[in-house]
Amino acid sequence: MKNIVISFFLAFVAMSANAQFLFRISGNQLQEPSYILGTIHTLPGSLLDSIPEYLEAETKCRQLFAEYDVSSQQAMTKVQEVGLQAITLPDDKTIFDVMDKEQIDLLDTRFKEVFHVSITDSLMKSVWKYQPLVLTTSFNLLLTVQEMQKHPEISMSNTPIDLVCINRAKERGMAFGQLDEIQPEDSLKKMRDTMNEKIDDQIDSLMNYLQDFEHRKQMVANEIEVMAMSEKCWKEADYDNYASLPKMVTEVNKQPAVFKQRNEKWLPKLQAAMSEAPTMFVFGAGHLIGEYGVLQLLRQAGYDVRPCLTPQKSGLSK
Q: By the 8 A CB rule, do 65 and 281 touch?
């Protein structure tokens, strides 16, 4: 009997505890509360079924805002098409036109090490037209994939949780908004022109990356470790530990453009949306934490922001 009770208790905690990453926003003249769900982007959307508080809050909201609309295949395809134009070298040049022999030799050495093929191989002909920045990104991407294979506990199957939240909202007829703006075509063309003016800088960056390769690999390993720890905290409903993970805090602090600046840019959008209607905000949990995290920014703006975990479920009541 004791084992049955313990098993039931553990199942109950697993079912409800993830609400610690769900926050209720009220006060500051809001007529109805809004909500924030902090996500780990790699987690599967099937986990939403384990958060009854989210399902309940969702029914109270009339709109949902995410970082951007990852469900819009047409928009993403357009960005990819224009982006491809932006990352190719100008005037039909190839990397052999903009890099000297010593640089190509180093690139070839790393290419063989990581991709197991020579950069000079005709199979790589399509790569020759990419700007150096793309090569740097490609190395980093493959190193990331290789490192993630060492962490089978990281969820990379099923539909990501952010996308499921968006799809559910659209199916319910909720209005949808983006906190980030997908760059329009003219912005991407401007980016292409800017990149073309800085080919030498891109080459320098690529060479630094390849010369410092072992350190870069370790940096990727550290990032994946942060991802693994973040998922573990989310699944165990341990927001407090997540928010104080040294490596997570370091990641947030060293990338102000990714976190601090975006959070500050999002704040007016959050306020405007909440003043219009009860809103569910869904974005990466990394944006919640720290001095410049969204939770702190909202509190400084006069809102009451609290986790949606009830005292009974948090073990605070008898």
A: yes
Q: Which helix (H) or strand (E) holds 187?
A: helix 185-196
Q: What share of the chain is helix, strand, coil (3-state, %, to 5)?
A: 60, 10, 25
CB 88 within 8 A of CB 56: no
Closest CA to 232 of 299, 287, 154: 154
Helices 73-86 & 185-196 angle (0-180, nearest 10):
20
**CB count in 10 Å sphere of residue 224:** 20
**Partner residues linked to 22 by β-bridges:** 37
Whole-angstrom distance, CA of residue 115 vs CA of residue 102: 19
The tens place of each residue's pLDDT in the chain, 318 residues long, gives 434 433 433 333 343 444 689 999 999 999 999 999 999 998 999 999 888 999 999 999 999 999 988 776 555 455 455 455 567 888 889 999 999 999 999 999 999 999 999 999 999 998 999 989 889 999 999 999 899 889 888 876 678 999 999 999 999 999 999 999 765 555 555 555 656 668 899 999 999 999 999 999 999 998 899 899 999 999 888 999 999 999 899 989 989 999 999 999 999 999 999 999 999 999 999 999 999 999 999 999 999 999 986 443 433 332
pTM of the complete model: 0.77
Is 185 within 8 Å of 112 (Cβ atoms)?
no
Q: Tokens 């003043």 map to which residue?
A: 275
Are 70 and 76 in contact by the 8 Å Cβ rule? The answer is yes
Give me the sheet containing 22-26, strands edge to edge: 175-178, 63-66, 279-284, 34-39, 22-26, 304-307
In this structure, are residues 64 and 280 in contact, taking their beta carbons and an 8 Å threshold?
yes
Any idea how long the chain is? 318
